[in-house]
Amino acid sequence: MEMITRRLVRSLLPPRDPLGHKGTFGRVYVCGGCVGYTGAPVYAGEAAVRTGSGLVTVGVPGEIYPVAAARCGGAMVQPLPADRDALLERMERCDASLIGPGLGRARETEETVLTLLRGLSRPVVLDADGINAVSAHIHVLDDRRGVTVITPHEGEFARLDGGFIPGKSSRTRAAADFARQHGCVTVLKGPGTIVAGPDGRVLRNSTGGSGLAKGGSGDILAGMILSLLGQGAGPLEAAVCAVWLHGRAGDLAEAALTAYAMTPLDLLDRLPAAFKELEQ
């Protein structure tokens, strides 16, 4: 198993064209949010902006649109269309999409997620309630035409893989087996986050601490992976770079504020310093 290090991430990060424009750096879409979970899609969208995306759209249900729009600084916020085909068409025009942050677990939501996964040919990051939606329909991952990156914590992963027991099963072996069997890059979050690819490559992260164990941190990671996919990184490379940068930003926030007091917003604020370290 490889370790994810600064040197490795520096070699994998997509180059930044000094003459590029908004279209050069990717158009990405975040589909998430519901009443009671307005922060998740906002964190994901802002993380995509911080990670270098040229154009970031956050699609949320109409009920929470005013709240999400007021909270987003760099991302464009739109109400989700009621028609699933219209949403699919909108997402297919983007370079990559993220499905799941704060979506909720209503039956209608599950059907929407499955429809999107069946129809999208573009790369997809599947997080949170997007993962929960496919837990009883795992064949949808197997049948996908495009790239899929999943970002479960151990509880979500246990719902995907009935043989996985949090705290007892080998995280490394379970992530590697799942990635190979279902053809998706698997990011199993936790201390020493595991990134596993369908080709058998498995890496363990070397950054991040307990300050990341707070609601919203995972949404930021998902948005970062989305951003790098949209900028042209391969799925494994996007996950590896995002996991290290996310953890390193967490380390910097923890050093300044303590693991107790740091928040996801503090994590976002430290991303520029984490990127800066890759230039040194």
Features:
single chain; 280 residues; alpha/beta; ten-stranded mixed β-sheet; 12 helices
Short account of what is shown:
By secondary structure, the protein is an alpha/beta fold. The chain has helices at 6-12, 39-50, 65-71, 84-92, 107-119, 129-134, 139-142, 154-160, 171-182, 217-230, 235-261, 264-278, and strands spanning 2-4, 27-31, 55-60, 76-79, 96-99, 124-126, 148-150, 185-188, 194-196, 202-205. It contains 12 helices and 10 strands.
Cross-sheet strand order for the largest sheet: 1-10-9-8-7-6-5-2-3-4
Q: Profile the largest sheet.
A: 10 strands, mixed
Helix % is 40-55%
Overall SS class = alpha/beta
Helical stretch tally:
12
Order of helices and strands: EHEHEHEHEHEHHEHHEEEHHH
Quote the distance from N terminus to C terminus: 26 Å
Which overall shape is indicated by the principal axes computed on the Cα atoms? globular
Rg computed from alpha carbons, rounded to a whole number of angstroms: 17 Å
Instruction: Count the E strands.
Output: 10
Query: What share of the residues does DSSP label as strand, in percent?
Result: 5-15%
Low-confidence stretches: none
| Integer average pLDDT | 96
Give the arrangement of secondary structure elements.
Layout: E1 2-4, H1 6-12, E2 27-31, H2 39-50, E3 55-60, H3 65-71, E4 76-79, H4 84-92, E5 96-99, H5 107-119, E6 124-126, H6 129-134, H7 139-142, E7 148-150, H8 154-160, H9 171-182, E8 185-188, E9 194-196, E10 202-205, H10 217-230, H11 235-261, H12 264-278
Parallel strand pairs: 1-10, 2-3, 2-5, 3-4, 5-6, 6-7, 7-8
Antiparallel strand pairs: 8-9, 9-10
Helix pairs in contact: 1-11, 2-10, 2-12, 10-11, 11-12
